[in-house]
Amino acid sequence: MCTSIPNQKPDTTANMMKKLLCSLLRCTLVQIHCLFDYIVTLIFSFYYWGKANKVPPVDDDLLLDSAIVLAEKIRNKKVSSEHVVTTFINRCKQVNGLLNVIVDERYDEAIEEAKEVDRLLARSTDINTLKATKPFLGVPFTTKESNEAKGLLHSMATVARKGYRSKEDATVVASVKSSGAILIAKTNIPELNQWVESRNIIYGQSNNPYNTTRTVGGSSGGDAAITAACGVPFALGSDIGGSIRMPAFFNGVFGFKPSENTTPLKGVGMRDVDFTSTMAEAGPICKCADDLIPLLKIIVSKTESRLKLDSPVDLKKLHIFYQESSGDLRISMINAEMRDVFMKAVDYFRDLTGSAQKIKLPGSEYSFRLWRYWMTREGVDFKSDITNRTSRTSATAEIKKLLTRNSNITLAALLKIIDEDFFPKDKKHWAEEVTNNMREYLLEKLGDNGVFFFPSSPFPASYHNSYFLRPYNFGYWALMNVLRLPTCQIPLGLDSEGLPVGIQVVAAPYQDHLCIAVAKELEKSFGGWVPPSIK
Ligand SMILES: *[C@@H]1O[C@H](CO)[C@@H](O)[C@H](O)[C@H]1NC(C)=O
Ligand SMILES: *[C@@H]1O[C@H](CO)[C@@H](O)[C@H](O)[C@H]1NC(C)=O
Ligand SMILES: *[C@@H]1O[C@H](CO)[C@@H](O)[C@H](O)[C@H]1NC(C)=O
Protein backbone atom coordinates (compact mmCIF):
# COMPACT_ATOMS: atom_id res chain seq x y z
CA MET A 1 0.00 0.00 0.00
CA CYS A 2 2.42 2.68 1.19
CA THR A 3 5.40 1.25 -0.60
CA SER A 4 3.68 1.47 -3.98
CA ILE A 5 4.20 5.25 -4.12
CA PRO A 6 6.76 5.68 -6.90
CA ASN A 7 9.95 7.33 -5.73
CA GLN A 8 10.41 9.28 -8.92
CA LYS A 9 7.45 11.64 -8.32
CA PRO A 10 8.50 15.15 -7.40
CA ASP A 11 8.13 15.79 -3.69
CA THR A 12 5.10 18.03 -3.68
CA THR A 13 3.69 18.95 -0.30
CA ALA A 14 0.78 16.58 -0.83
CA ASN A 15 3.23 13.78 -1.57
CA MET A 16 5.29 14.50 1.47
CA MET A 17 2.17 14.51 3.65
CA LYS A 18 1.17 11.19 2.17
CA LYS A 19 4.60 9.71 2.89
CA LEU A 20 4.54 11.03 6.43
CA LEU A 21 1.09 9.57 7.07
CA CYS A 22 2.19 6.27 5.62
CA SER A 23 5.23 6.01 7.84
CA LEU A 24 3.10 7.00 10.85
CA LEU A 25 0.60 4.28 9.98
CA ARG A 26 3.42 1.81 9.54
CA CYS A 27 4.90 2.69 12.91
CA THR A 28 1.51 2.27 14.58
CA LEU A 29 0.98 -1.12 12.96
CA VAL A 30 4.43 -2.28 14.04
CA GLN A 31 3.73 -1.14 17.62
CA ILE A 32 0.36 -2.94 17.68
CA HIS A 33 2.03 -6.08 16.32
CA CYS A 34 4.72 -5.90 19.01
CA LEU A 35 2.12 -5.51 21.74
CA PHE A 36 0.14 -8.42 20.32
CA ASP A 37 3.28 -10.62 20.25
CA TYR A 38 4.09 -9.64 23.81
CA ILE A 39 0.62 -10.63 25.02
CA VAL A 40 0.69 -13.93 23.09
CA THR A 41 4.03 -14.86 24.66
CA LEU A 42 2.78 -13.88 28.10
CA ILE A 43 -0.38 -16.01 27.85
CA PHE A 44 1.50 -19.04 26.51
CA SER A 45 4.19 -18.70 29.17
CA PHE A 46 1.49 -18.90 31.87
CA TYR A 47 0.00 -21.94 30.24
CA TYR A 48 3.37 -23.72 30.02
CA TRP A 49 4.60 -22.52 33.43
CA GLY A 50 6.61 -25.26 35.14
CA LYS A 51 6.02 -27.76 32.32
CA ALA A 52 9.41 -27.37 30.61
CA ASN A 53 12.02 -30.07 30.30
CA LYS A 54 15.06 -30.71 28.12
CA VAL A 55 17.04 -33.70 26.94
CA PRO A 56 19.67 -35.14 29.33
CA PRO A 57 23.38 -34.69 28.52
CA VAL A 58 25.05 -37.38 26.42
CA ASP A 59 26.86 -40.12 28.33
CA ASP A 60 29.20 -41.03 25.46
CA ASP A 61 31.38 -38.45 23.68
CA LEU A 62 31.10 -40.42 20.44
CA LEU A 63 27.62 -38.86 20.13
CA LEU A 64 29.22 -35.40 19.80
CA ASP A 65 31.40 -36.30 16.80
CA SER A 66 30.71 -34.95 13.33
CA ALA A 67 29.65 -37.37 10.60
CA ILE A 68 33.03 -37.16 8.83
CA VAL A 69 34.95 -37.80 12.05
CA LEU A 70 32.78 -40.85 12.77
CA ALA A 71 33.32 -42.10 9.22
CA GLU A 72 37.08 -41.67 9.64
CA LYS A 73 37.08 -43.54 12.97
CA ILE A 74 35.05 -46.39 11.48
CA ARG A 75 37.30 -46.61 8.39
CA ASN A 76 40.43 -46.71 10.53
CA LYS A 77 38.80 -49.34 12.76
CA LYS A 78 39.22 -47.12 15.83
CA VAL A 79 35.60 -48.00 16.53
CA SER A 80 33.24 -50.45 14.85
CA SER A 81 30.22 -49.30 12.86
CA GLU A 82 28.18 -51.65 15.01
CA HIS A 83 29.25 -49.75 18.12
CA VAL A 84 28.55 -46.35 16.52
CA VAL A 85 25.12 -47.33 15.20
CA THR A 86 24.15 -49.00 18.50
CA THR A 87 25.28 -45.97 20.52
CA PHE A 88 23.20 -43.58 18.41
CA ILE A 89 20.18 -45.90 18.46
CA ASN A 90 20.39 -46.05 22.27
CA ARG A 91 20.48 -42.27 22.37
CA CYS A 92 17.39 -42.11 20.11
CA LYS A 93 15.61 -44.48 22.50
CA GLN A 94 16.72 -42.41 25.48
CA VAL A 95 15.40 -39.07 24.16
CA ASN A 96 12.41 -40.06 22.06
CA GLY A 97 10.03 -40.38 25.01
CA LEU A 98 10.59 -36.71 25.70
CA LEU A 99 10.78 -35.46 22.11
CA ASN A 100 8.42 -37.72 20.13
CA VAL A 101 10.39 -37.23 16.92
CA ILE A 102 11.04 -40.81 15.72
CA VAL A 103 7.94 -42.09 13.91
CA ASP A 104 9.29 -45.30 12.37
CA GLU A 105 12.54 -47.19 12.84
CA ARG A 106 14.67 -50.00 11.44
CA TYR A 107 17.04 -50.38 14.37
CA ASP A 108 17.57 -54.14 14.04
CA GLU A 109 18.21 -53.98 10.29
CA ALA A 110 20.54 -51.01 10.80
CA ILE A 111 22.66 -52.96 13.31
CA GLU A 112 22.85 -55.88 10.88
CA GLU A 113 24.00 -53.47 8.13
CA ALA A 114 26.60 -52.02 10.52
CA LYS A 115 27.98 -55.51 11.19
CA GLU A 116 28.18 -56.02 7.43
CA VAL A 117 30.20 -52.77 7.17
CA ASP A 118 32.61 -54.03 9.84
CA ARG A 119 33.04 -57.29 7.92
CA LEU A 120 33.68 -55.36 4.71
CA LEU A 121 36.30 -53.22 6.46
CA ALA A 122 37.96 -56.29 7.96
CA ARG A 123 38.60 -57.72 4.51
CA SER A 124 39.35 -54.43 2.67
CA THR A 125 42.90 -53.55 1.86
CA ASP A 126 42.20 -50.38 -0.11
CA ILE A 127 40.79 -47.95 2.47
CA ASN A 128 41.40 -44.92 0.19
CA THR A 129 39.12 -46.25 -2.52
CA LEU A 130 36.47 -46.94 0.10
CA LYS A 131 36.84 -43.38 1.36
CA ALA A 132 36.23 -42.04 -2.16
CA THR A 133 33.33 -44.32 -3.04
CA LYS A 134 31.64 -44.60 0.37
CA PRO A 135 32.61 -41.49 2.36
CA PHE A 136 29.98 -42.08 5.07
CA LEU A 137 30.46 -45.82 5.41
CA GLY A 138 28.84 -47.08 8.60
CA VAL A 139 27.50 -43.70 9.82
CA PRO A 140 23.83 -43.60 10.96
CA PHE A 141 21.27 -41.01 9.75
CA THR A 142 17.53 -40.27 9.75
CA THR A 143 15.23 -38.78 7.17
CA LYS A 144 11.82 -37.14 7.46
CA GLU A 145 8.71 -39.29 7.09
CA SER A 146 7.90 -37.57 3.78
CA ASN A 147 11.11 -38.76 2.08
CA GLU A 148 10.49 -42.24 0.68
CA ALA A 149 12.59 -45.06 2.12
CA LYS A 150 11.81 -48.60 1.09
CA GLY A 151 9.73 -50.52 3.63
CA LEU A 152 9.24 -47.55 5.96
CA LEU A 153 6.14 -45.46 6.61
CA HIS A 154 5.30 -42.74 4.09
CA SER A 155 1.88 -41.56 5.24
CA MET A 156 2.89 -37.89 4.78
CA ALA A 157 1.34 -37.63 8.27
CA THR A 158 -2.10 -37.50 6.69
CA VAL A 159 -4.88 -39.87 7.84
CA ALA A 160 -5.93 -40.91 4.33
CA ARG A 161 -2.46 -42.50 3.85
CA LYS A 162 -2.04 -43.87 7.36
CA GLY A 163 0.10 -47.01 7.40
CA TYR A 164 1.33 -46.62 3.80
CA ARG A 165 4.87 -47.96 3.32
CA SER A 166 7.26 -46.99 0.52
CA LYS A 167 8.05 -49.51 -2.19
CA GLU A 168 11.33 -47.80 -3.05
CA ASP A 169 13.77 -45.15 -1.90
CA ALA A 170 13.57 -41.51 -2.96
CA THR A 171 16.48 -40.88 -5.37
CA VAL A 172 18.19 -38.71 -2.79
CA VAL A 173 17.70 -41.27 0.02
CA ALA A 174 19.24 -43.90 -2.26
CA SER A 175 22.23 -41.56 -2.90
CA VAL A 176 22.85 -41.08 0.81
CA LYS A 177 22.57 -44.83 1.42
CA SER A 178 25.02 -45.51 -1.40
CA SER A 179 27.56 -43.26 0.33
CA GLY A 180 27.63 -46.01 2.95
CA ALA A 181 25.44 -44.21 5.52
CA ILE A 182 22.91 -46.34 7.39
CA LEU A 183 19.30 -45.21 7.73
CA ILE A 184 18.09 -45.88 11.27
CA ALA A 185 14.72 -44.11 11.48
CA LYS A 186 12.18 -41.72 9.99
CA THR A 187 11.13 -38.56 11.76
CA ASN A 188 8.07 -36.41 12.35
CA ILE A 189 6.68 -33.72 10.04
CA PRO A 190 3.54 -31.55 9.77
CA GLU A 191 0.62 -32.95 7.76
CA LEU A 192 1.75 -33.05 4.10
CA ASN A 193 4.79 -31.00 5.19
CA GLN A 194 2.69 -27.82 5.11
CA TRP A 195 3.01 -26.12 8.45
CA VAL A 196 5.65 -24.57 10.66
CA GLU A 197 5.24 -27.08 13.50
CA SER A 198 5.69 -30.86 13.41
CA ARG A 199 2.37 -31.97 14.85
CA ASN A 200 -0.25 -34.20 13.25
CA ILE A 201 -3.07 -36.63 13.98
CA ILE A 202 -1.06 -39.79 13.29
CA TYR A 203 2.14 -39.18 15.25
CA GLY A 204 1.27 -36.30 17.59
CA GLN A 205 3.49 -33.38 18.50
CA SER A 206 7.29 -33.21 18.54
CA ASN A 207 9.06 -31.28 21.30
CA ASN A 208 12.16 -29.12 21.19
CA PRO A 209 15.22 -30.73 22.85
CA TYR A 210 16.26 -27.38 24.39
CA ASN A 211 12.88 -26.75 25.96
CA THR A 212 9.99 -29.14 25.48
CA THR A 213 7.42 -26.34 25.71
CA ARG A 214 8.73 -25.10 22.32
CA THR A 215 8.18 -26.28 18.78
CA VAL A 216 10.79 -28.11 16.71
CA GLY A 217 9.57 -26.25 13.61
CA GLY A 218 8.65 -27.84 10.31
CA SER A 219 8.64 -29.50 8.08
CA SER A 220 11.97 -31.31 8.73
CA GLY A 221 11.23 -30.79 12.45
CA GLY A 222 11.94 -34.32 13.66
CA ASP A 223 15.19 -34.46 11.65
CA ALA A 224 16.57 -31.26 13.17
CA ALA A 225 15.49 -32.11 16.73
CA ILE A 226 17.01 -35.60 16.68
CA THR A 227 20.25 -34.20 15.21
CA ALA A 228 20.46 -31.51 17.92
CA ALA A 229 19.70 -34.12 20.61
CA CYS A 230 22.62 -36.27 19.29
CA GLY A 231 20.38 -39.12 18.14
CA VAL A 232 22.10 -38.98 14.73
CA PRO A 233 25.13 -37.09 13.40
CA PHE A 234 23.12 -35.85 10.39
CA ALA A 235 19.71 -36.02 8.74
CA LEU A 236 18.32 -35.60 5.24
CA GLY A 237 15.62 -32.93 4.92
CA SER A 238 13.81 -31.01 2.20
CA ASP A 239 12.97 -27.32 1.91
CA ILE A 240 10.19 -25.59 -0.06
CA GLY A 241 9.43 -22.79 2.41
CA GLY A 242 12.20 -22.97 4.99
CA SER A 243 11.57 -26.63 5.83
CA ILE A 244 15.27 -27.38 6.39
CA ARG A 245 16.42 -24.01 7.70
CA MET A 246 13.54 -23.27 10.06
CA PRO A 247 13.85 -26.44 12.15
CA ALA A 248 17.65 -26.18 11.91
CA PHE A 249 17.33 -22.72 13.48
CA PHE A 250 14.83 -23.74 16.16
CA ASN A 251 17.07 -26.66 17.15
CA GLY A 252 20.40 -24.86 16.83
CA VAL A 253 22.01 -26.95 14.06
CA PHE A 254 23.20 -26.30 10.50
CA GLY A 255 20.73 -26.64 7.64
CA PHE A 256 21.46 -26.08 3.98
CA LYS A 257 19.19 -25.45 1.00
CA PRO A 258 21.30 -25.95 -2.15
CA SER A 259 21.14 -24.03 -5.44
CA GLU A 260 18.01 -24.45 -7.55
CA ASN A 261 17.59 -27.63 -9.58
CA THR A 262 20.57 -29.40 -8.08
CA THR A 263 18.84 -32.10 -6.03
CA PRO A 264 16.67 -34.97 -7.34
CA LEU A 265 13.11 -34.73 -5.97
CA LYS A 266 11.55 -38.03 -7.00
CA GLY A 267 10.28 -39.62 -3.80
CA VAL A 268 10.58 -36.36 -1.84
CA GLY A 269 7.04 -35.74 -0.61
CA MET A 270 4.52 -37.22 -3.06
CA ARG A 271 6.54 -36.32 -6.16
CA ASP A 272 6.77 -39.36 -8.42
CA VAL A 273 9.08 -37.63 -10.90
CA ASP A 274 11.97 -35.15 -10.56
CA PHE A 275 10.38 -31.70 -10.54
CA THR A 276 12.58 -29.19 -12.33
CA SER A 277 10.86 -25.84 -11.94
CA THR A 278 10.42 -25.70 -8.20
CA MET A 279 11.32 -23.82 -5.03
CA ALA A 280 12.06 -27.14 -3.31
CA GLU A 281 15.44 -28.78 -2.76
CA ALA A 282 16.63 -31.62 -0.57
CA GLY A 283 19.51 -30.85 1.79
CA PRO A 284 21.53 -31.76 4.87
CA ILE A 285 20.95 -31.01 8.55
CA CYS A 286 24.00 -31.49 10.82
CA LYS A 287 25.73 -30.32 13.99
CA CYS A 288 29.13 -29.53 12.47
CA ALA A 289 29.85 -27.21 9.55
CA ASP A 290 32.62 -29.52 8.32
CA ASP A 291 29.96 -32.06 7.34
CA LEU A 292 28.14 -29.71 4.97
CA ILE A 293 30.34 -30.02 1.86
CA PRO A 294 30.82 -33.82 2.02
CA LEU A 295 27.08 -34.32 2.60
CA LEU A 296 26.18 -31.88 -0.15
CA LYS A 297 28.40 -33.77 -2.60
CA ILE A 298 26.33 -36.88 -1.98
CA ILE A 299 22.98 -35.11 -2.15
CA VAL A 300 23.75 -33.28 -5.42
CA SER A 301 25.77 -36.18 -6.85
CA LYS A 302 24.37 -35.86 -10.40
CA THR A 303 24.81 -32.08 -10.65
CA GLU A 304 27.94 -31.60 -8.58
CA SER A 305 29.90 -30.25 -11.53
CA ARG A 306 27.69 -27.12 -11.54
CA LEU A 307 28.80 -26.27 -8.00
CA LYS A 308 32.32 -25.38 -6.94
CA LEU A 309 32.36 -27.34 -3.74
CA ASP A 310 36.13 -27.88 -3.76
CA SER A 311 37.09 -24.32 -4.67
CA PRO A 312 39.03 -22.55 -1.94
CA VAL A 313 37.39 -19.40 -0.54
CA ASP A 314 39.40 -16.40 0.56
CA LEU A 315 37.12 -15.05 3.29
CA LYS A 316 38.98 -11.73 3.44
CA LYS A 317 38.05 -11.02 -0.18
CA LEU A 318 34.32 -11.77 0.16
CA HIS A 319 31.85 -8.95 -0.46
CA ILE A 320 29.43 -8.73 2.44
CA PHE A 321 25.84 -7.46 2.15
CA TYR A 322 23.19 -7.48 4.82
CA GLN A 323 19.62 -6.51 5.59
CA GLU A 324 18.32 -6.34 9.16
CA SER A 325 14.60 -6.74 8.49
CA SER A 326 12.42 -7.75 5.55
CA GLY A 327 9.92 -4.97 6.21
CA ASP A 328 7.01 -7.41 5.85
CA LEU A 329 4.36 -6.05 8.22
CA ARG A 330 2.78 -9.48 8.62
CA ILE A 331 5.96 -10.71 10.30
CA SER A 332 6.76 -9.94 13.96
CA MET A 333 9.52 -7.46 14.72
CA ILE A 334 12.94 -9.01 15.32
CA ASN A 335 13.67 -9.12 19.04
CA ALA A 336 16.66 -7.45 20.66
CA GLU A 337 18.74 -10.59 21.20
CA MET A 338 18.24 -11.79 17.62
CA ARG A 339 19.17 -8.39 16.24
CA ASP A 340 22.17 -8.23 18.50
CA VAL A 341 23.61 -11.57 17.45
CA PHE A 342 22.84 -10.78 13.78
CA MET A 343 24.83 -7.54 13.94
CA LYS A 344 27.68 -9.30 15.77
CA ALA A 345 27.96 -11.76 12.89
CA VAL A 346 27.85 -8.93 10.33
CA ASP A 347 30.43 -6.91 12.28
CA TYR A 348 32.70 -9.92 12.58
CA PHE A 349 32.73 -10.19 8.79
CA ARG A 350 33.01 -6.43 8.40
CA ASP A 351 36.23 -6.60 10.42
CA LEU A 352 37.47 -9.59 8.46
CA THR A 353 36.80 -8.21 4.97
CA GLY A 354 37.04 -4.48 5.60
CA SER A 355 33.44 -3.64 4.68
CA ALA A 356 29.81 -4.71 4.85
CA GLN A 357 27.14 -2.98 2.83
CA LYS A 358 23.59 -2.58 4.10
CA ILE A 359 21.03 -3.13 1.35
CA LYS A 360 17.26 -3.41 1.02
CA LEU A 361 15.92 -6.04 -1.37
CA PRO A 362 13.20 -4.31 -3.37
CA GLY A 363 10.05 -6.31 -2.61
CA SER A 364 11.24 -8.15 0.51
CA GLU A 365 8.25 -6.65 2.31
CA TYR A 366 6.08 -9.00 0.24
CA SER A 367 7.94 -12.15 1.30
CA PHE A 368 4.86 -14.08 2.39
CA ARG A 369 2.67 -13.03 -0.55
CA LEU A 370 5.36 -13.92 -3.06
CA TRP A 371 5.92 -17.34 -1.52
CA ARG A 372 2.17 -17.94 -1.50
CA TYR A 373 2.01 -17.06 -5.19
CA TRP A 374 4.93 -19.31 -6.14
CA MET A 375 3.39 -22.20 -4.21
CA THR A 376 0.53 -22.11 -6.72
CA ARG A 377 3.12 -22.74 -9.49
CA GLU A 378 4.55 -25.87 -7.89
CA GLY A 379 2.32 -28.45 -9.52
CA VAL A 380 1.40 -29.83 -6.09
CA ASP A 381 -2.32 -30.32 -5.40
CA PHE A 382 -2.80 -30.16 -1.63
CA LYS A 383 -6.57 -30.73 -1.77
CA SER A 384 -6.06 -33.94 -3.72
CA ASP A 385 -2.95 -35.16 -1.87
CA ILE A 386 -4.79 -34.93 1.44
CA THR A 387 -7.27 -37.55 0.20
CA ASN A 388 -4.33 -39.72 -0.96
CA ARG A 389 -5.28 -38.63 -4.50
CA THR A 390 -8.56 -40.52 -4.44
CA SER A 391 -10.64 -37.34 -4.81
CA ARG A 392 -10.33 -33.62 -4.17
CA THR A 393 -11.57 -31.98 -1.00
CA SER A 394 -12.65 -28.36 -0.50
CA ALA A 395 -12.87 -25.85 2.32
CA THR A 396 -16.67 -26.18 2.42
CA ALA A 397 -16.50 -29.97 2.65
CA GLU A 398 -13.83 -29.85 5.37
CA ILE A 399 -15.71 -27.24 7.42
CA LYS A 400 -18.85 -29.40 7.21
CA LYS A 401 -16.85 -32.40 8.43
CA LEU A 402 -15.46 -30.32 11.26
CA LEU A 403 -18.95 -29.23 12.35
CA THR A 404 -20.25 -32.79 12.27
CA ARG A 405 -17.15 -34.01 14.11
CA ASN A 406 -16.03 -36.11 11.16
CA SER A 407 -12.89 -34.19 10.41
CA ASN A 408 -9.66 -36.13 10.16
CA ILE A 409 -7.26 -33.40 9.06
CA THR A 410 -5.18 -31.02 11.19
CA LEU A 411 -6.14 -27.41 11.88
CA ALA A 412 -3.05 -26.35 9.91
CA ALA A 413 -4.23 -28.30 6.84
CA LEU A 414 -7.75 -26.88 7.18
CA LEU A 415 -6.39 -23.33 7.27
CA LYS A 416 -4.32 -24.03 4.15
CA ILE A 417 -7.41 -25.29 2.31
CA ILE A 418 -9.47 -22.31 3.49
CA ASP A 419 -6.73 -20.01 2.25
CA GLU A 420 -6.72 -21.76 -1.16
CA ASP A 421 -10.52 -21.61 -1.55
CA PHE A 422 -11.59 -18.37 0.06
CA PHE A 423 -8.74 -15.86 -0.11
CA PRO A 424 -7.97 -13.83 -3.23
CA LYS A 425 -4.93 -14.80 -5.28
CA ASP A 426 -2.13 -12.41 -6.13
CA LYS A 427 -1.67 -11.43 -9.75
CA LYS A 428 0.82 -13.49 -11.76
CA HIS A 429 2.23 -10.43 -13.49
CA TRP A 430 2.81 -8.55 -10.23
CA ALA A 431 4.35 -11.47 -8.35
CA GLU A 432 6.68 -12.50 -11.16
CA GLU A 433 7.84 -8.97 -11.82
CA VAL A 434 8.59 -8.25 -8.16
CA THR A 435 10.41 -11.57 -7.83
CA ASN A 436 12.49 -11.07 -10.97
CA ASN A 437 13.45 -7.53 -10.01
CA MET A 438 14.45 -8.57 -6.52
CA ARG A 439 16.50 -11.50 -7.80
CA GLU A 440 18.23 -9.33 -10.39
CA TYR A 441 18.99 -6.68 -7.81
CA LEU A 442 20.54 -9.20 -5.40
CA LEU A 443 22.46 -11.16 -8.07
CA GLU A 444 23.94 -7.96 -9.40
CA LYS A 445 25.24 -7.16 -5.89
CA LEU A 446 26.49 -10.64 -5.08
CA GLY A 447 28.32 -11.42 -8.30
CA ASP A 448 30.43 -14.52 -7.92
CA ASN A 449 32.11 -13.49 -4.70
CA GLY A 450 29.41 -12.01 -2.48
CA VAL A 451 27.30 -13.26 0.41
CA PHE A 452 24.11 -11.82 1.86
CA PHE A 453 23.43 -11.96 5.60
CA PHE A 454 19.70 -12.14 6.32
CA PRO A 455 17.83 -12.77 9.59
CA SER A 456 16.34 -16.20 10.23
CA SER A 457 13.34 -15.31 12.27
CA PRO A 458 11.95 -12.62 14.60
CA PHE A 459 12.66 -14.83 17.61
CA PRO A 460 13.84 -18.30 18.63
CA ALA A 461 11.53 -21.34 18.88
CA SER A 462 8.17 -20.23 20.31
CA TYR A 463 5.66 -22.15 22.40
CA HIS A 464 3.69 -24.95 20.74
CA ASN A 465 0.61 -23.71 18.87
CA SER A 466 1.56 -20.04 19.21
CA TYR A 467 2.37 -20.04 15.47
CA PHE A 468 -1.35 -20.09 14.71
CA LEU A 469 -1.21 -16.48 15.91
CA ARG A 470 2.03 -15.77 13.99
CA PRO A 471 1.56 -17.74 10.79
CA TYR A 472 3.71 -15.44 8.63
CA ASN A 473 6.89 -15.49 10.70
CA PHE A 474 8.56 -18.05 8.45
CA GLY A 475 8.76 -15.38 5.72
CA TYR A 476 12.49 -14.80 6.24
CA TRP A 477 13.18 -18.36 5.14
CA ALA A 478 10.46 -18.49 2.48
CA LEU A 479 11.90 -15.48 0.64
CA MET A 480 15.01 -17.50 -0.19
CA ASN A 481 12.80 -20.21 -1.73
CA VAL A 482 11.10 -17.50 -3.81
CA LEU A 483 14.53 -16.29 -4.98
CA ARG A 484 15.78 -19.89 -5.34
CA LEU A 485 19.20 -19.09 -3.92
CA PRO A 486 21.55 -21.38 -1.98
CA THR A 487 21.15 -20.55 1.70
CA CYS A 488 22.77 -21.80 4.88
CA GLN A 489 21.11 -21.65 8.28
CA ILE A 490 23.94 -21.12 10.76
CA PRO A 491 23.61 -21.58 14.55
CA LEU A 492 25.17 -18.83 16.70
CA GLY A 493 24.83 -20.26 20.20
CA LEU A 494 21.98 -19.81 22.69
CA ASP A 495 20.00 -16.81 23.92
CA SER A 496 19.38 -15.85 27.57
CA GLU A 497 16.51 -18.38 27.78
CA GLY A 498 18.76 -21.20 26.57
CA LEU A 499 17.19 -21.33 23.09
CA PRO A 500 19.26 -21.48 19.89
CA VAL A 501 19.77 -18.32 17.81
CA GLY A 502 21.26 -17.99 14.34
CA ILE A 503 21.46 -16.34 10.95
CA GLN A 504 20.96 -17.11 7.26
CA VAL A 505 23.71 -16.62 4.72
CA VAL A 506 22.82 -16.52 1.03
CA ALA A 507 24.90 -16.62 -2.16
CA ALA A 508 24.29 -16.43 -5.92
CA PRO A 509 23.32 -19.62 -7.79
CA TYR A 510 26.03 -22.31 -7.71
CA GLN A 511 28.09 -20.35 -5.17
CA ASP A 512 26.95 -22.70 -2.41
CA HIS A 513 30.55 -23.08 -1.23
CA LEU A 514 30.66 -19.39 -0.23
CA CYS A 515 27.77 -19.82 2.25
CA ILE A 516 29.47 -22.87 3.68
CA ALA A 517 32.84 -21.16 4.05
CA VAL A 518 31.06 -18.42 6.04
CA ALA A 519 29.29 -21.10 8.11
CA LYS A 520 32.62 -22.66 9.06
CA GLU A 521 34.09 -19.32 10.07
CA LEU A 522 31.06 -18.34 12.16
CA GLU A 523 31.08 -21.75 13.82
CA LYS A 524 34.70 -21.15 14.81
CA SER A 525 34.08 -17.70 16.25
CA PHE A 526 30.54 -18.04 17.68
CA GLY A 527 30.54 -21.64 18.83
CA GLY A 528 28.00 -23.09 16.36
CA TRP A 529 25.87 -25.89 17.73
CA VAL A 530 25.68 -26.03 21.54
CA PRO A 531 24.39 -29.25 23.17
CA PRO A 532 20.97 -28.88 24.85
CA SER A 533 22.46 -29.97 28.20
CA ILE A 534 26.00 -30.28 29.47
CA LYS A 535 27.14 -32.76 32.12
C1 LIG B 1 11.84 -23.29 29.09
O1 LIG B 1 11.34 -21.97 28.88
C2 LIG B 1 10.71 -21.38 30.03
C3 LIG B 1 10.18 -20.03 29.62
O2 LIG B 1 11.12 -19.29 28.93
C4 LIG B 1 11.70 -21.26 31.16
O3 LIG B 1 11.05 -20.74 32.29
C5 LIG B 1 12.26 -22.64 31.48
O4 LIG B 1 13.24 -22.54 32.47
C6 LIG B 1 12.85 -23.29 30.22
N1 LIG B 1 13.19 -24.65 30.56
C7 LIG B 1 14.35 -25.19 30.33
C8 LIG B 1 14.50 -26.61 30.69
O5 LIG B 1 15.26 -24.56 29.84
C1 LIG C 1 -2.66 -44.34 -0.87
O1 LIG C 1 -2.05 -44.27 -2.15
C2 LIG C 1 -1.11 -45.29 -2.42
C3 LIG C 1 -0.46 -45.00 -3.75
O2 LIG C 1 -1.41 -44.78 -4.73
C4 LIG C 1 -1.80 -46.64 -2.37
O3 LIG C 1 -0.89 -47.67 -2.65
C5 LIG C 1 -2.41 -46.83 -0.97
O4 LIG C 1 -3.09 -48.04 -0.89
C6 LIG C 1 -3.36 -45.69 -0.65
N1 LIG C 1 -3.97 -45.79 0.66
C7 LIG C 1 -3.35 -45.95 1.84
C8 LIG C 1 -4.18 -45.98 3.05
O5 LIG C 1 -2.16 -46.05 1.92
C1 LIG D 1 -10.86 -39.52 6.57
O1 LIG D 1 -11.64 -38.78 5.67
C2 LIG D 1 -11.73 -39.30 4.35
C3 LIG D 1 -12.48 -38.33 3.49
O2 LIG D 1 -13.76 -38.12 4.01
C4 LIG D 1 -12.40 -40.66 4.39
O3 LIG D 1 -12.46 -41.20 3.09
C5 LIG D 1 -11.59 -41.56 5.29
O4 LIG D 1 -12.23 -42.80 5.43
C6 LIG D 1 -11.37 -40.95 6.67
N1 LIG D 1 -10.42 -41.78 7.35
C7 LIG D 1 -10.53 -42.11 8.62
C8 LIG D 1 -9.49 -43.02 9.13
O5 LIG D 1 -11.41 -41.68 9.34
TrEMBL record:
Keywords: Membrane, Transmembrane, Transmembrane helix
GO cellular component: endomembrane system
SUPFAM superfamilies, alphabetized: Amidase signature (AS) enzymes (SSF75304)
Signal peptide segment: none
Amidase domain residues: 84-515
A Pfam entry, by short name: Amidase
Active site: residue positions: K144 (charge relay system), S219 (charge relay system), S243 (acyl-ester intermediate)
Domain of life: Eukaryota
Transmembrane segments: 24-49
The family this protein is said to belong to: Belongs to the amidase family.
Protein name in UniProt: Amidase domain-containing protein
Natural source organism: Microctonus aethiopoides
